[in-house]
Every structure is written in C-alpha cells, then in structure tokens.
Model the fold of this input.
Amino acid sequence: MNKEWHAKNKMPEKATLKERIDWHVRHQKSCACRGMPKSLLKHLTAKRANRTVL
Ligand SMILES: [Zn+2]
Done:
C-alpha cells in the first residue's frame, strides 16, 4: 500500500460518483491496495463508450 499517496489523496467524505471514479483511476496508477469496485467499473466503461453518461 502506498501510504504516502493515500495521505495526499483522501477520498472526500461525500464524494460524488465522478469524484470516486477519478479517485480510483488515480489510485490505480499509484497504488494497488484495492481494485476499483465493480459498480464504479461499470460507470467507467459506460463513460468511455459514451461521454455523455456522466
Ligand atoms: Zn491504495
């Protein structure tokens, strides 16, 4: 776990869906302590297929 990254990148308590997705995308690049939840992955895939989804 990349503790330094986590210390600098706290998930907001009331993060929106977009903020959560952004957080996980950045997280994946710096740390692998946990994967993106499937519910978010679904939205990310939809976002890539159709930019108007989010
Ligand atoms: Zn992590």
